[in-house]
Specification:
Elements lengths: L9 H22 L4 H14 L2 H10 L5 H17 L3 H25 L21 H20 L5 H21 L5 H29 L9
Helix pairs in contact: 1-8, 3-7, 4-5, 5-6, 5-8, 6-7, 6-8
């Protein structure tokens, strides 16, 4: 990997604040009933496209955003980063993962929203519905990973991996609505808060790059 100094990390904090505000507005929309029609329309649209093979695909894909998938993936990514001597990257991947997980659990307790009553294609989790942990945590972790790859890896094919990670976040998030275990509003709120935490993590990562990997007096970092 090739490392360069971060540029204007304060912009990441601005994005974090903006996305948090978007998440707060989405919560207000949910509390005032503004999301009800969108939630029902999302379920209706998903029902129209359901097929046996798509259900099997979504059932497998959704595991990449749950604890059963994120824990081993997180451990693997951190181990790979340490093996490649990029411990700073490993630390901030952990920050993205664990921070989003903790914040999601706290938010679920605050909103105390039950899961959809029926139409689920897999077993309903025992946790509360809002915000979606799959959308929130996968947004923070996978987008942080995509940013690190985009920033530090100039090898051919890196852009394809970044694009795949973006698509993965969208697919994992939509799988929860398709499978009937989350409302669309859960996904929207989870994604907004997850991306907000990603930008907080990115800010800390960029500040660390400026401090530890910026060349000093012409000496390479």
């Amino acid at each position: 990997m090739q490392f360069g100094p971060a540029k204007s990390p304060e912009r990441s904090l601005l994005w974090a604040a903006l996305l948090f505000a978007v998440g707060a507005m989405l919560v207000i929309a949910y509390l005032t009933g503004g999301f009800a029609i969108f939630d029902q329309q999302a379920f209706a649209w998903m029902a129209l496209i359901r097929t046996e093979w798509l259900t099997s695909f979504m059932s497998a894909l959704t595991h990449l955003g749950g604890s059963e998938g994120l824990i081993p993936i997180g451990v693997l990514l951190v181990a790979l980063a340490i093996w490649k001597r990029t411990r700073m990257e490993a630390m901030f991947l952990l920050m993205a993962l664990l921070g989003a997980e903790i914040l999601n659990e706290l938010a679920k307790l605050i909103f105390d929203r039950p899961r959809p009553a029926d139409g689920n294609l897999i077993e309903l989790p025992s946790s509360y519905s809002m915000p979606s942990g799959h959308a929130m945590i996968s947004s923070a972790l996978y987008i942080m990973l995509a940013y690190q790859i985009k920033r530090n890896d100039k090898q051919a094919g890196a852009s394809w991996i970044v694009a795949f990670l973006y698509v993965l976040v969208i697919g994992v998030s939509l799988s929860r609505v398709y499978l009937g275990v989350h409302y669309f509003s859960d996904i929207a709120v989870g994604a907004a808060f997850g991306l907000s935490w990603y930008f907080v993590t990115r800010y800390a990562y960029e500040k660390a790059l400026l401090r530890w990997r910026t060349p000093i007096h012409g000496v390479p970092a």
